[in-house]
Amino acid sequence: MSQETVSQETVTTTRVIQLASRPSGRPVPENFRLAEAAVPELEDGQVLVRNLFISVDPYMRGRMNDVKSYSAPFAVGEALDGGAVGEVIASRSSERNVGDVVVHSLGWREHSVAEAGSTTVARTDLAPASAFLGALGMTGLTAYAGLLKVAEFKEGDAVFVSGAAGAVGSLVGQIARAMGASRVIGSAGSQEKVDRLLELGFDAAFNYHDGPVKDQLKEAAGQAGIDVYFDNVGGEHLEAALSVLNVGGRVAMCGAIAQYNATEPTPAPHNLMLAIGKQLTLRGFLVGGQRQHAAEFAGRMSGWLADGTVRYDETIVDGLENAPQAFMDLLDGANTGKMLVRL
């Protein structure tokens, strides 16, 4: 059992972000509260972690609603949680040593007490700690498994990715290129992001604000069409993809950020009947159901990062007190790559 390097008396309180009220539509600052919380005394099998980075992710918006879903809703008046990476500063477990850098799910706070077995050691000899919340973490696994396992990508496929300058989308496009895609197309919300996608190896990219997505996608895909659509946006993007997908095409439905702040029911694609004639497969997925591929993913992604095949972007905001604004900015598309809060 490792020895504590910080006495429990030294860290008795920590700052956390609580959900002050449930958002209606787009979240606002009043929905969040910066508060002090007690740090419980460590029990056997637990570690105290000083968080270095926390992740803010689109899926968290759904957990702010009091509705039944695949993940329990956040409780009003309680601290939020989510991905984080930090340094173990006290341990009562033989599994984790003081000084280990670990990934865990108790973010939105400066210090976390976690069960050692629920943490994963971050190999900071392979990449910076922040990468284990992005390219080498849940984000990367989402991209890898969504493309290769859910959409069943195969060499020669033409791929379209929406929200392609985001954390997941930018990795999907690069993985597709690495695995032999015939063409990779991405959509993004600014010319700067479009330019970045071309730098990352996308064959074509367009700004969805410049005109109807359907028209821009058809122009980018040409006569060859697309075989795979990785959907991060939903709505107009999904409808456009259905119109351009080839017979036997596959859709990996990862997210629908265009609908997360909607206060009224959003219309389904008007052309869903195309899925019948084209014999399409539309498959939703959660990264939690893809963890059996984690080792395979980690091996491949480590190699791709090492040789420069895959690159990743981070948008970093400093200070826990700025985490709510970082989250709101994420929903507005202000990030390029992974949105992180550095503590």
Can you offer a commentary on this structure?
There is one protein chain. The protein is of the alpha/beta class and 343 residues long. The protein has 2 domains: 13-134 and 313-342, Medium-chain alcohol dehydrogenases, catalytic domain (Quinone Oxidoreductase, Chain A, domain 1), CATH 3.90.180; 138-288, Rossmann fold. It is built from 9 helices and 15 strands. Strands 3, 4, 5, 6, 7, 14 and 15 form a 7-stranded mixed β-sheet that branches. Strands 10-9-8-11-12-13 form a 6-stranded parallel β-sheet, sandwiched between helices. A two-stranded antiparallel ribbon has the order 1-2. Strand 12, helix 7 (274-277) and strand 13 (281-284) form a beta-alpha-beta unit. Helix 2 packs across helix 3 (167-178), helix 2 crosses helix 8 and helix 5 (213-221) packs parallel to helix 6 (235-244). The longest helix is centred in the C-terminal third of the chain and has 14 residues, at 294-307.
CATH architecture call of the largest domain: Alpha-Beta Complex
Distance from N terminus to C terminus (CA atoms, Å) equals 28 Å
Strand content: 25-35%
Name of the CATH homologous superfamily of the largest domain: Medium-chain alcohol dehydrogenases, catalytic domain
H and E string: EEEHEEEEHEHEHEHEHEHEHEHE
Q: What is the residue-averaged pLDDT?
A: 94
CATH class of the largest domain, please?
Alpha Beta
Number of domains: 2
Helical percentage:
10-25%
Q: Give a short account of the largest sheet.
A: 7 strands, mixed
Evaluate the radius of gyration: 21 Å
The CATH topology of the largest domain is given as Quinone Oxidoreductase, Chain A, domain 1
